[in-house]
């Protein structure tokens, strides 16, 4: 009742043309003051540093060029030739190149998906990235205080965190978290969780492993919505070291500024647009709905609404709020949304490489250029959709190109089932030179290439 009275009063004031500028200015000032106090409170917590990270670069023997994918599809789907044709049409328009990776079980004829094969893929991806991270950081696994692993479909018993604990002989008191079923946006959920832990526990290290174990994904039926993941998802993963230790302040690559998570799963279409299910023949797979691009757009808008006031300069906040207020008061659905100029805040953008259509839609919604989306497009081409780890391949691309300079701000945007849109903002702590230990070291000179 109180809200109705407030809205009625607000509409009365807004209807008066003379009061509009004063009303909008007053609301803007109030929001800025509230934001200032929130940021002041947040600043009391210790800084969270991204010390370093490592991406999995699988052996070349696991690469899956288009012609090999076609040969395998004709054998694996011999009873459904129309499914083979559909997959090849999707692959031709997908934006994926010929050097993406599939796990060992998918190279077998026929494929041999199993729990054991999935464990094998997990060991390849996780151990290679963790070994690389520990080596270049000269970090003893005994120094890890928190371990967070995210992978959606593969949730074995014992968990992947237990597998890692056993492999690296970690301390008995390390706190472990195994996140499953949270889709391609789970990497930033892991960052959020690690951040919250590091805010409370001083002088601590947190390691995040973000991946998607896809061996059990492979679908051999004829439902087209469930054939799409075969064409888009590829093998990959990353290990990330976060810390609040002051000794890492100068050594670390980035400092975490913001994490904002939004979830629109209360809407049926959003909830069902990425869905693990059985088809009419009882075959299990992941269904990708035709509504996915529109759902992703809605989720992005919700995230921007929650995110904008934290990062935008006052002029952009003013125009953004003015547009929102106008839309609420007029109740007109055709009111064109104001797209803030995010390039006034961010130097680089890492948008989840979910597919060519997703990248194109995000570029349009954010008012960005092809060059702004270059890390996403090149990651999709070279590594495919590696789910939640794609953001780290994109960041590695920027580093390999020598683009990361001290003071640069990076916006990571993750989209995932549920449906969720999550954002993270990092500030570059130092100039980062082109390193030879990342996943791009043997091919960066060939990029960028033109991908529609």
Automatic annotation (TrEMBL):
<dbReference type="Pfam" id="PF08392">
    <property type="entry name" value="FAE1_CUT1_RppA"/>
</dbReference>
<dbReference type="Pfam" id="PF08541">
    <property type="entry name" value="ACP_syn_III_C"/>
</dbReference>
<feature type="transmembrane region" description="Helical">
    <location>
        <begin position="22"/>
        <end position="42"/>
    </location>
</feature>
<dbReference type="GO" id="GO:0016020">
    <property type="term" value="C:membrane"/>
</dbReference>
<keyword id="KW-1133">Transmembrane helix</keyword>
<feature type="domain" description="FAE">
    <location>
        <begin position="44"/>
        <end position="327"/>
    </location>
</feature>
<dbReference type="InterPro" id="IPR013747">
    <property type="entry name" value="ACP_syn_III_C"/>
</dbReference>
<feature type="active site">
    <location>
        <position position="385"/>
    </location>
</feature>
<protein>
    <recommendedName>
        <fullName>3-ketoacyl-CoA synthase</fullName>
        <ecNumber>2.3.1.-</ecNumber>
    </recommendedName>
</protein>
<keyword id="KW-0472">Membrane</keyword>
<keyword id="KW-0808">Transferase</keyword>
<dbReference type="InterPro" id="IPR012392">
    <property type="entry name" value="3-ktacl-CoA_syn"/>
</dbReference>
<feature type="active site">
    <location>
        <position position="348"/>
    </location>
</feature>
<keyword id="KW-0012">Acyltransferase</keyword>
<feature type="active site">
    <location>
        <position position="352"/>
    </location>
</feature>
<feature type="domain" description="Beta-ketoacyl-[acyl-carrier-protein] synthase III C-terminal">
    <location>
        <begin position="347"/>
        <end position="426"/>
    </location>
</feature>
<comment type="pathway">
    <text>Lipid metabolism; fatty acid biosynthesis.</text>
</comment>
<dbReference type="GO" id="GO:0009922">
    <property type="term" value="F:fatty acid elongase activity"/>
</dbReference>
<dbReference type="InterPro" id="IPR013601">
    <property type="entry name" value="FAE1_typ3_polyketide_synth"/>
</dbReference>
<feature type="active site">
    <location>
        <position position="381"/>
    </location>
</feature>
<feature type="active site">
    <location>
        <position position="184"/>
    </location>
</feature>
<dbReference type="InterPro" id="IPR016039">
    <property type="entry name" value="Thiolase-like"/>
</dbReference>
<feature type="active site">
    <location>
        <position position="263"/>
    </location>
</feature>
<comment type="similarity">
    <text>Belongs to the thiolase-like superfamily. Chalcone/stilbene synthases family.</text>
</comment>
<dbReference type="GO" id="GO:0006633">
    <property type="term" value="P:fatty acid biosynthetic process"/>
</dbReference>
<keyword id="KW-0812">Transmembrane</keyword>
């Amino acid at each position: 009742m109180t809200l109705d009275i407030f809205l009625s009063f607000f509409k009365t004031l807004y209807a008066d043309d003379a009061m509009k500028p004063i009303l909008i200015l007053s609301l803007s000032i109030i929001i800025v003051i509230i934001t200032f106090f929130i940021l002041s409170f947040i600043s009391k917590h210790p800084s969270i540093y991204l010390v370093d990270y490592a991406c999995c670069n699988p052996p070349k023997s696991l690469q899956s060029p288009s012609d090999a994918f076609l040969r395998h599809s004709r054998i694996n789907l011999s009873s459904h030739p129309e499914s083979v044709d559909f997959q090849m049409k999707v692959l031709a328009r997908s934006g994926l190149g010929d050097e993406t990776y599939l796990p060992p079980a998918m190279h077998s004829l026929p494929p041999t998906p199993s729990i054991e094969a999935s464990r094998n893929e997990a060991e390849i991806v996780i151990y290679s990235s963790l070994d690389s991270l520990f080596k270049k950081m000269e970090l003893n696994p005994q120094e890890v205080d928190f371990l967070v692993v995210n992978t959606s479909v593969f949730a074995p018993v014992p968990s992947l965190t237990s597998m890692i604990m056993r492999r690296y002989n970690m301390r008995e008191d390390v706190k472990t978290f195994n996140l499953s079923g949270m889709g391609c946006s789970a990497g930033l959920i892991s960052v959020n969780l690690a951040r919250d832990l590091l805010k409370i526990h001083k002088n601590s290290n947190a390691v995040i492993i973000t991946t998607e174990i896809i061996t059990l994904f492979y679908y051999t039926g004829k439902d087209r919505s469930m054939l799409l993941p075969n064409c888009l998802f590829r093998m990959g993963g990353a290990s990330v070291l976060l810390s609040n230790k002051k000794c890492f302040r100068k050594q670390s690559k980035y400092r975490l500024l913001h994490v904002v998570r939004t979830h629109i799963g209360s809407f049926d279409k959003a909830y069902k647009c990425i869905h693990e299910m059985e088809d009419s023949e009882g075959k299990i797979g992941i269904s990708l709905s035709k509504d996915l691009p529109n759902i992703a757009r809605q989720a992005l808008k919700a995230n921007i609404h929650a995110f904008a006031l934290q990062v935008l300069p006052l002029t952009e906040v003013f125009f953004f709020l003015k547009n929102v207020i106008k839309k609420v008061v007029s109740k007109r659905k055709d009111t064109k949304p104001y797209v803030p100029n995010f390039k006034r805040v961010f130097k680089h953008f890492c948008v989840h490489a979910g597919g060519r259509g997703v990248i194109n839609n995000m570029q349009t919604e954010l008012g960005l250029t092809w060059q702004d989306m270059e890390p996403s497009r090149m990651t999709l081409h070279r590594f495919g959709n590696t789910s939640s780890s794609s953001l780290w391949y994109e960041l590695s691309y920027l580093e390999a190109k020598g683009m990361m300079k001290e003071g640069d701000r990076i916006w990571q945007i993750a989209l995932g089932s549920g449906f969720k849109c999550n954002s993270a903002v990092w500030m570059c702590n130092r100039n980062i030179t082109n390193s030879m230990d990342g996943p791009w070291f043997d091919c960066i000179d060939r990029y960028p290439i033109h991908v529609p």
